[in-house]
Amino acid sequence: MGVEEALKRAGAYADAGADAVFIQSLDETGNEVLAFGREWKRRTPVFIAPTRFSHVTRKNFAKAGISHTIFANQGLRAAHAAMDRTFGILARSESADPVNSEISSVATVASLVGAQRVMELESLLKRKNEELGPKQKKHRATELPRNLGRLTTHAVSKEIQKA
Questions:
Q1: Model confidence over 15-67: pLDDT tens digits?
Q2: What integer pLDDT is reported at residue 150 of this predicted model?
Q3: Which helix (H) or strand (E) holds 33?
C-alpha cells in the first residue's frame, strides 16, 4: 500500500481517537517503516513488529519516531526452535533426564501461571464448604469451580467471600 496510504489510514485512526498506531511492511529493507516514522512526527506512539527487517536497530527506529518495538515473532520462533531441539533429544532418549538442565523447572512454570494462588483458593473453598450448614447445600462453594475459568482472581475472591 505504501507509506502515503499508511499515513492516511493512521491519520484517520488518530483523528478518531486511537491512542497509538501499529504499522507493518513487507519491505525487507525497513525503509518504509522508517519513512513512516519520520513523516508521522510522533502524533501518537507507533508500534512495529520488525519480523522482515531484523537488521534495523532499535536506535534507528527511535530516531525515526518509532516508539515501541514488539519482537513477538522472534519469541515464537525461539520457542519453536527450543521445542524442536527438546523433542529431538527426547525422541532419542530413554528418559526425560537429558533435557532437564535445558528446560524450565516445574516450580518455575507453576509460579508463572499462579498455581500457588489456585491452591490457596481451593483451600479456601474447602474451608468455606465446611463452614456451611446443610440448609445452605445448594449454595455450596464447590459450585464455584465451574465458573473459575471465566472469573478473574479478584472476582473469584469476591465469590468466595459471598459463599
A1: 999 999 999 999 999 999 999 999 998 889 999 999 999 999 999 999 999 99
A2: 47
A3: helix 31-40
Q: What DSSP character marks residue 103?
A: S
Q: Which three cell numbers stand for residue 90?
A: 527426547
Q: What is the largest CA-CA distance in the chain?
A: 71
- Return the exposure string of 110-134: e unless at least 16 CB atoms fall within 10 Å of the residue's CB, then b: eeeeeeeeeeebeebbeebbeeeee
Closest CA to 38 of 11, 12, 3, 2: 3
Q: Which of 20, 30, 34 is nearest to 64 (CA)?
A: 34
Every domain of the chain and the residues it spans: 3-70, 73-103, 113-162
CA angle 74, 13, 5 (to 5 degrees): 75
Taking residue 21's Cβ as centre, other Cβ atoms within 10 Å add up to 21
163 HSE (CA, 13 A, CB side): 25
Cα 47 to Cα 74, 105, 159: the distances in Å are 16, 33, 38
Instruction: Give ∠ CA 97-101-104 in degrees, rounded to 5.
Output: 105
In tens, the pLDDT along 64-87 reads 999 999 998 999 999 999 999 999
